[in-house]
Design goal:
- The chain is 39% helix and 20% strand.
- It is of the alpha/beta class and 255 residues long.
- The protein has two domains: 113 residues, Cobalt-precorrin-4 Transmethylase, domain 1 (3-Layer(aba) Sandwich); 123 residues, Tetrapyrrole methylase, C-terminal domain (Methyltransferase, Cobalt-precorrin-4 Transmethylase, Domain 2), CATH 3.30.950.
- α6 crosses α7.
- The chain is elongated and about 60 Å long.
- The termini are far apart.
């Protein structure tokens, strides 16, 4: 039986002007591969061409893996790996397998003894955490919250309570066109001293990473957040949260 191939996890830029964020070694590995598992073939072809303009895309093979893909539909890529060829796994943006369906392919590779090699590149979640000033020792990434306002308010309150109880940074993302709704809902749902970080367009010319209390966000108003890729982070100082929670509870009982 031939030696199994390796599965390379290949980050891609977070936007058009972020090509510089891909290290030379990652780009070199990308050039050596000819079979890819990707979220969208069109996007993968675009970035491969950007990173190696002289390369012909015709000999390359792409198998799509999205949120609707079943493991049984990945037989071609699995066969390629089991027959000794290396495969690259790419997402739409940033690092694969984080808020991304690629984890299914990696789980299969781990079960089958295929070597999995994560390569260096931009991760919006980790870079936002690094620049937020929040707890980087204890944090939890929740992916997407509810898309509707009322359930979202409950989700945000739950994250706030967990942030206070665990002293843990809470991280989530949203579809860019819903950013304004998320921001406005956060101002309504969260306590005044709770910290909210908004990190947008990371690694791009318009990069914006700002942490403020809800009170200060209310004063400063809405940043230019519409339709920009964003990461949201919540943190709570335990003492402040307890004081505000007790005060809110007391005032509610008095009404």
């Amino acid at each position: 039986m031939p030696e199994k191939g390796k599965l390379y996890l290949i980050p891609v830029p977070l936007g058009e002007e972020g090509l510089y964020s891909i290290p030379a070694h990652t780009a070199e590995v990308l050039r050596q591969l000819d079979f890819f598992v990707v979220e969208r073939a069109k996007t993968a072809r675009y970035w491969i061409k950007k990173l190696n303009p002289e390369r012909s895309l015709d000999p390359l093979s792409f198998q799509e893996l999205n949120e609707h893909t079943k493991e049984s539909e990945l037989q071609e890529a699995m066969a390629v790996l089991l027959n000794g060829r290396n495969v690259g796994l790419l997402s739409e943006a940033g690092c694969p397998c984080v808020a991304d369906p690629g984890a299914m392919m990696v789980a299969w590779a781990q079960r089958e003894g295929v070597v999995v090699i994560p390569l260096t590149g931009p991760s919006a979640m980790l870079m936002a955490l690094m620049a937020s000033g929040m707890n980087g020792q204890r944090f939890c990434f929740h992916g997407y919250l509810s898309p509707k306002r009322e359930p979202l308010m409950k989700d945000l309150k739950t994250l706030e309570q967990r942030a206070a109880r665990q002293q843990e940074t809470q991280i989530f993302i949203e579809t860019p066109y819903r950013n304004v709704m998320v921001f406005e809902t956060a101002l309504q749902a969260l306590l005044p001293d709770t910290l909210l970080c908004i990190a947008m367009d990371i690694t791009l010319p318009g990069e914006y990473i700002v942490t403020k209390t809800i009170r200060d966000w209310t004063k400063s108003g809405l940043p230019d957040i519409q339709k920009r890729p964003a990461v949201f982070l919540i943190a709570v100082k335990d003492v402040a949260f307890k004081e505000k929670s007790e005060s809110a509870h007391f005032n509610k009982k008095r009404r």
